[in-house]
Amino acid sequence: MNSKRKLIYEGKAKILYEGPEPGTLIQYFKDDATAFNGEKKAQLEGKGVINNRISEFVMTRLNQIGITNHFIKRLNLREQLIREVEIVPLEVVVRNVAAGSIAKRLGLEEGTPLPRSIIEFYYKKDELNDPMVSEEHITAFNWATTQEMDEMLATAIRVNDFLCGMFSAVGITLVDFKIEFGRIYENDFSRVILADEISPDSCRLWDTATGEKLDKDRFRRDMGNVIESYTEVARRLGIMKDMPTVIQGGLH
Ligand SMILES: Nc1ncnc2c1ncn2[C@@H]1O[C@H](COP(=O)(O)OP(=O)(O)OP(=O)(O)O)[C@@H](O)[C@H]1O
Ligand SMILES: [Mg+2]
User: Fold this and answer.
1) Residue 129 C-alpha to ligand 2 middle, in angstroms?
2) Whether domain 7-85+226-250 has CATH 3.30.2130.10
3) Chain segment 132-145, per-residue pLDDT in tens
4) Where are the bilayer-spanning segments (predicted)?
C-alpha cells in the first residue's frame, strides 16, 4: 500500500483511496470479514485477494454485455481502479431461492425456489440496521428518482439473468445477491451505474449438486472452510490459474 495516497473511506470490507485521475478511486479489498452489521468480525487470510479477482471477473463480463459498471482495471492483488460514483444509499437485493432474511420474515423453508425472481431494496444506514424500504419510501425521501429506480430494476434483472447463467454453467446456483449503484454525471445529465463489488461476500452461492454453501453464510453461521469455498468459486470460474502460487498453495 502506498502511504502517501489519500484515504477517502474505510469500510468493513474495503478501503477507497483517491485515484490517479479525477473521477477515479482505488478500491482495496481487505481480509476483514464482518456480519450482522459488524457485530461479528474476523480476519480471513486471502479473502481480499480472491474477492478482488472474482469482482474483476464478474464486472468485466458484465461490461462486455453492456452493463456499465465502475470497474476500470485491476491494479494488483488487492486493488482495482474504479470510477468514482455518488453511491445511491440503497442495497438492491435480487432473490431466486428463499434464504436468509426472506425465509425468516415470510416463514419459507430455506432452499424453496421463489415463484419468480424478487427484488428488494434496503436503505443503507448502519445505525438503523439497513431496513427494507419500498419504492414509495425511496422516491418520497429522494434517495433515488423514479427514473433511477427503473434503471436499477432493469439492470438488476439483467445482472441476475447473466449471473444465473454464468454460475449454473459451473454447477453453482445463484440463490440471491446484493448490488449497489452510483450516479455519474455527464454534462447536465446523471445516470446510475453498477458499483461496489460482486463476490461470495455479496452473493449466496450453493453447489447445485450437493447444496453446499460456497459463500459468506459459511462465516455468518460458523460453518468453517470459508476461504476454501471462496477459492472453489474462483476455481470453477476459471480464475484460480491466474492467482499467485502462494495463494493457490496456501488455500488448498
Ligand atoms: N465506485 C464507487 N465510488 C464511490 N463509492 C463506492 C464505489 N463503489 C463502492 N463504493 C462504496 O465504498 C464502500 C466500500 O466499502 P465497504 O463495502 O467495506 O463498506 P461497508 O463497510 O460495507 O459500509 P457501507 O455501509 O458504507 O457499504 C461502500 O460504502 C460502498 O458503497
Ligand atoms: Mg459494503
Assistant:
1) 13
2) no
3) 999 999 999 999 99
4) none
